[in-house]
Design a protein that fits this description.
The chain has 153 residues and is an alpha+beta fold. It folds into two domains: 45 residues; 79 residues, RRM (RNA recognition motif) domain (Alpha-Beta Plaits, 2-Layer Sandwich), CATH 3.30.70.330. It has five helices and four strands, in the order αααβαββαβ. A hairpin with a 2-residue loop joins β2 and β3. It comes from Thelephora ganbajun.
Length: 153
């Protein structure tokens, strides 16, 4: 925050000190505002950028840094695992049996609207990491490999 003194008196102060001079004060203030509107250095800088961009319409647009999303494989460790590419016939009990081989299993959640994904939650990140490393690309139905990544936070 930056605090500085006002460059001129406010309308309220002029009205309190000399009510008859209020109209003259307002007229001068509006005139000064019109004069300084386009001489402000910051506004001149933005105007120059805008004009340069408009004149370069035929030129290649300025390359903006693309918004890249982190691949699932590089997500930071998390106590919740995200399972993909599950067979549609998989049940919660089957997943419970598979993931309970690893300690600290808390919960298995299937997504009713999407049969091929699920979430498996452990009590800590370490247990989730061990299960992820052991079961990634596991063939649950003998055909398709399940993809296991850490869930996004």
């Amino acid at each position: 925050m930056q605090i500085s003194f006002a460059k001129s008196r406010s309308d309220a102060v002029v009205k309190k000190l000399d009510p008859s001079a209020l109209d003259v004060h307002k007229a001068r203030r509006l005139e000064r505002k019109k004069d300084t509107r386009y001489t402000n250095p910051l506004k001149q800088k933005f105007k120059a950028k805008r004009l340069a961009a408009e004149s370069d319409v035929g030129a290649a647009p300025v390359a903006r840094r693309p918004n890249v999303q982190m691949p699932d494989e590089y997500l930071p460790p998390n106590k919740i695992l995200f399972l993909q590419n599950l067979p549609e016939t998989v049940t919660k009990d089957q997943l419970n049996a598979l993931f309970s081989q690893y300690p600290n299993l808390h919960e298995v959640r299937l997504v009713p609207s999407k049969k091929d994904i699920a979430f498996v939650e452990y009590l800590d990140e370490g247990s989730a990491t061990v299960a992820k490393d052991a079961l990634h690309n596991y063939k649950l139905d003998g055909e398709n490999k399940i993809k296991i990544t850490f869930a996004r936070k």
